Amino acid sequence: MFNKFLRENKIASVILTVLRLYLGYSWFTAGFHKLTGGFDAAGFLKGAIANPVKGPDGAVVFGWYVDFLKHFALPNVDVFNVLVPWGETLIGLGLILGCLTTAAMFFGLIMNFSFFLAGTVSHNPRDIFLGFIILTAGYNAGKIGLDRWVVPFFRKISNKTAATEKSKATV
């Protein structure tokens, strides 16, 4: 019932637009400040490796993630120095404009969980909660935005491609 409300209701689309704009502004400003003010993820990565998330018994909870940070992210920090600020900025733009909203929110949630696994609590729980609401709503979350035109356009292209592939397969 709640899922139907989120995905189909006009009032829900207005509420989702407010949530989307709020999260979009947060993502956009975080990314934009990193793009314009300089950004180096090395310090964050080293800190997350040196002080990983630990359980009540003192054992490392996400050892696999610490290994990922140590053996992949840190050696490739130059890639992450580009991906993080541009990713945050583009996620913010997608949410603010309501363009490819579900894709933007999906990648926003990936980044939120990445920060969370690295031990950064901050506003991540709130952002994850709101992000799942937006992701669950799907098309309705971007209906008051560019998705109103972008999603039908992609569906039309997809249907033409599928029809072309079907006609090729019958020949």
Structure description:
The protein has helices spanning 2-8, 10-37, 42-50, 63-73, 77-97, 101-117, 124-137, 139-142, 147-170. The mean pLDDT is 93. It contains nine helices and no strands. With 171 residues, the chain is mainly alpha-helical.
Task: State the main characteristics.
mainly alpha, 171 residues
Write the SSE topology.
Elements: H1 2-8, H2 10-37, H3 42-50, H4 63-73, H5 77-97, H6 101-117, H7 124-137, H8 139-142, H9 147-170
Helix pairs in contact: 1-2, 1-7, 2-5, 2-7, 3-4, 5-6, 6-7
Largest sheet: none
Structural class: mainly alpha
Number of strand elements: 0
Question: What spatial form do the alpha-carbon principal axes imply?
Answer: globular
Output the radius of gyration.
Answer: 19 Å
What's the short version?
The chain has 171 residues and is an all-alpha fold.
